[in-house]
UniProtKB/TrEMBL annotation:
Comp. bias intervals (Basic and acidic residues): 335-350, 357-375, 382-394
Taxonomy, superkingdom: Eukaryota
Region of interest (Disordered), ranges: 1-38, 300-394
Organism per entry: Corchorus olitorius
MF terms in GO: histone binding
Protein name: Nucleosome assembly protein (NAP)
Positions with biased composition (Acidic residues): 302-316, 323-334
Keyword set includes Cell membrane: no
InterPro entries documented for this protein: NAP-like_sf, NAP_family
Amino acid sequence: MSNEENNSNMPEAEAGDEENNSNMPEAGDAPPNEDPLAVLMNALKAKLKKQAAKHVNMLENLSESVWNRVQVLREMQGQHDELGAKCSAEIAELENKFQKLYEPLYAKRCNVVNGVDEKAEENPEEAVAMEQGDDKDAEEKGVPEFWLTAMKNNKLVNQEISKRDKEVLKYLKDIKWGKIEEGKGFKLEFYFETNPFFKDTVLIKTYQMIDADEIILDKATGMEIDWYPKKEKFMRKKGSKKGSFFINFFNPPQIPGDDDEIDEYIADELEKQILQDYCIGSEIKDKIIHRAVSWFTGDAKLEEEEEEEEDEEEEKEEKKEDDNEEEGKEDDGEEKQSGEEEEKEEKKDAAEEESKEESSAAEKKSIDEEEKKDGGEEESKEESSAAEKNSSEE
């Protein structure tokens, strides 16, 4: 199989991406009357398109052999996903089973929180006796500000609650969650007593998921609150460091459409807002609803703080180990360098010693040769003298 045939199955980059990206609006280029949310949506879409183009370019540069291996890995991933789907289905069945078991407990909790005494309703005489009891106890029904206190004690949710929100949340009677009827995702239902802020008795927030198992959000949908005159303006009043929980939570940021183009910086901001909104919804669903009384008393808050401290300690220990490891590497490097320098010095000393020995040997050899030469000359003189003596005697 040729590279051309293999690459025909590989995704191709969209034509004109580079040209489109060059025409993207900058963060500060939005017209003064343009909706900031629309600008954020455009920025996120542009960022996603840019990332997708980079990924496609990377795939196009794979060799034939590597691409074939990728195809094998895709088949393996498909088998894994099939098993994961079965696992998710069984987990969902189990969750549904226990959710039905939880519901009666949640209903009783709601009655206690809101001062609905089931026993008194079943026994009118007992209800009369209760009314004739302590006036203070009779005036104070249920657990005042139960849900407000529970939400305030959650660090993440409390970040979104302003002073004005607290006045409204005092009227919150109950919070429920359930799966949406169509598609994947969940909804949160906030039940309110009659209050001077809005006419609604139930406010609903919905999170629709593309893939609930992978936590891929499709969109979050709030609802338009039916405010009494001037109350919405009161909630939107400037001057607070925090925005309004009711204004922001029930009017969430939206993921941009396919045709939207947005600046990368603005896309990052929108991505953070969407993630924050989803995290708050999940925090209410998974933690506050399930353990409301623990959040009210502060027990859950203390547990989370202890966990955070433990995590911080673990991070410090890990950092300390990493630092020690780096110091060890530096020490090893210094020791190695020191050893190399010592070795160089030893080699240098040995070379100098060897040079001295060679020089000494050369000098000795020269002296020996001189002595030998002198001896030869002396011997030659003696022989010459003897020859002359013999000649004269003759």
